[in-house]
């Protein structure tokens, strides 16, 4: 049986709770703002998808602040990265949405945790610089667990006392989609009854500016134009941070608890490009195969898909490859499902991307709407035949195909469907 999603939690550039996030998606309201990195007004990177209500610029946790309503013990804060703080808040929301208490998942052998993040470049740099300054004589005792790529696994597992399974995934922008996929498999195989999936990333100079040196970031200074997926004038992605958490449960467990199923995770697939380290296959070959595998796993055909949630980061090469792949899977069959590129509103959240899109898909299914592409001006030529609505569409999307792609040609796709008894 396919698992169902019973709870979601959001800390994002477009809102820090599901009500605000859904309203932003419906209204096409973006969360991209003007920023200045490292006090250098001459840098060409002028905008980012910012997380509001959190102050986590300092490498010292005692300087941080966050919205009311979250009680995080000091002994946990000491080992957190900024995105770990986001993640704890998102998980608490998701558990509450699923009508679960933290005590319900603590030390429960049937609950697992699946995480994705790139770690904290800011804290890693800070801690190593301090160590080097004293020639290794001393250092932060929690520097490792707060900064390396497994920081979410370590800290969330300890804070929520997870005993069923704890694992982390690092495949660049496909990371949280991999986390979600393997959580689905463990639930299907009966290894667990419940999985918490969380992705989180920081938005600061250390995590973002290295992409500028790859010429991957937009140099546009207008927050309303910088992230415009599929647009002929797009010039790179807009970096962003945040966290999204999802609670997945075996259908029998959700029914036992009387929990409302928001959506079904009905299939997933992955495939690699085998092409270049930091560029998609020009025809989206790996992504197309991943989409086909996701559809096969969900036992559906392209005509059964009511909406596509595109990875679409607003980079010239990546968007082009995805547009071609979507076109060959759908357009060549005479199909034109709406294609939504929500990074036009949020910016690109890197390893968080897949979990964030999954959360948005849940909101679309439960709220009966499909996000539009409000920043799209003139679509690029390779998008010919794709249906790229500018405004939000009212109505149930039915099944949604959600795409993610990462460095090294990692492509992961998921199919989300209305829960049994609900038709789209």
CATH names the topology as Peroxisomal Thiolase, Chain A, domain 1
CATH superfamily, please?
Answer: Thiolase/Chalcone synthase
Radius of gyration: 20 Å
- The oligomeric state is single chain
Percent of residues in helices comes to 25-40%
Name the CATH architecture: 3-Layer(aba) Sandwich
Distance between the termini: 20 Å
Average pLDDT score: 96
- Give the tally of β-strands: 14
Strand content: 15-25%
Poorly predicted segments: none
Please give a structural write-up:
The chain has one domain: Peroxisomal Thiolase, Chain A, domain 1, CATH 3.40.47.10. 32% of the residues lie in helices and 18% in strands. It contains 14 helices and 14 strands. The protein has helices at residues 18-27, 74-77, 82-97, 102-105, 121-133, 143-147, 151-160, 175-188, 205-212, 251-257, 285-297, 316-329, 343-346, 353-367, and strands at residues 4-11, 32-34, 47-49, 111-116, 165-169, 194-201, 242-249, 263-272, 305-309, 339-340, 369-370, 393-394, 399-406, 410-417. It has a ten-stranded mixed β-sheet, with helices on both faces. The chain has a two-stranded antiparallel ribbon with strand order 2-3. The protein is globular, with a radius of gyration of 20 Å.
Question: How would you briefly describe this protein structure?
Answer:
This protein has 424 residues and is α/β, with parallel strands linked by helices.
Secondary structure layout:
Layout: E1 4-11, H1 18-27, E2 32-34, E3 47-49, H2 74-77, H3 82-97, H4 102-105, E4 111-116, H5 121-133, H6 143-147, H7 151-160, E5 165-169, H8 175-188, E6 194-201, H9 205-212, E7 242-249, H10 251-257, E8 263-272, H11 285-297, E9 305-309, H12 316-329, E10 339-340, H13 343-346, H14 353-367, E11 369-370, E12 393-394, E13 399-406, E14 410-417
